[in-house]
Design a protein that fits this description.
Elements (H helix, E strand, L loop, with lengths): L2 H18 L7 H10 L3 H4 L3 E5 L5 H8 L3 E6 L2 H10 L6 E6 L11 E6 L8 H14 E13 L8 E5 L2 E4 L10 E5 L1 H10 L2 E13 L4 E12 L1
Parallel strand pairs: 1-2, 1-4, 2-3, 4-5, 5-8
Antiparallel strand pairs: 5-10, 6-7, 7-8, 9-10
Amino acid sequence: MKLKEIDQSTHAESAKHVNSSPITYPDERLVAFLQRSFGDRDNNKTKNALDIGFGSGRHIQLLIDFCFKTYGIEYTEEAIAVTAKRFRSENSLQKLLLGDYRTYKFDVKFDLVIAWGLIFYSTYSEMQKDLIAMANAVNDNGRVILNFRTTENWFYGLGKEVDKNTYLLDERARAYKGYVYTFLSLDEIKTLISEVGLKIECIERIDLWKNQLEERNSWYICELSKK
């Protein structure tokens, strides 16, 4: 399977869940990151924020609550339709865009870019392109907030390895079957970030044990700025 086909496979699987099981509440750690770096809501009213891969719009709502001039970009028309309907009366929502953020020509620079639950769907080889696109989208004093899957997730390696630490997951991964996931060590994350002209301002790690403590889910959360 070619890398482009793998990418399309993952987006197809993700699109199935936009209408079937939308999450409407924001991630609490993302809320904490925003409160720490963008807690002045009056000041945020002049700032542009972009949610990459916004899905059903749970972090579009968060950006609106923090008073940003809010933008979103998605691969699927389904996500655009669901989210546009949900926020049709919100004046601070500027645009919902359809396309690939890595090649999209944005007409503004952003003070904040969120890529939550996104980059680990890319293959290892594509991650540098993802980070370069985020760096290009944010202004000189802006921030990028995103999360990575660690190599200590319970379903790490449960599938066919199609790139370095990138797996097309099989039935052993249960609900994750059919998805492409990339799992990284902290050193690999630091190297990728440094290579694209970004630096880490803040980093956290979250470990969540589920299914009667049998399944470990693990992420690194990074807030980045330009060097």
